[in-house]
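Fold it.
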Amino acid sequence: MISQNLEKIRMKDSDEFRFYRMGVLPALEMLASKGEKFDIIFMDPPYRIVPDLARDAAELICRGNLLADDGMLIVEHAEDNPPVYDQIALEHVRSCSYGITVLTFFKKNKEKRGNS
């Protein structure tokens, strides 16, 4: 379905989109080893594992320096199972609710920006 959507917007052969069929944590480690940087990292994990996976992913994102200075990590989760903000190695910016679904936005902590 993603490929079909990219085809519809004439972006199927673009270098701006890449897909990996692997778990998020190994993917983040692989991308960090390649020196990749992202403006947006979007996570849509199974809602029941959001707190632990968001914590672990944020740690890898910070350790691997994967976010651009003004980049954002966006975590989709259920209203009743959010990331635990004080366990996330990033600064909470805001959360937006859409029914029972919530998008929570994080950015680099101020003291960590510019150390790219």
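The radius of gyration is 15 Å.
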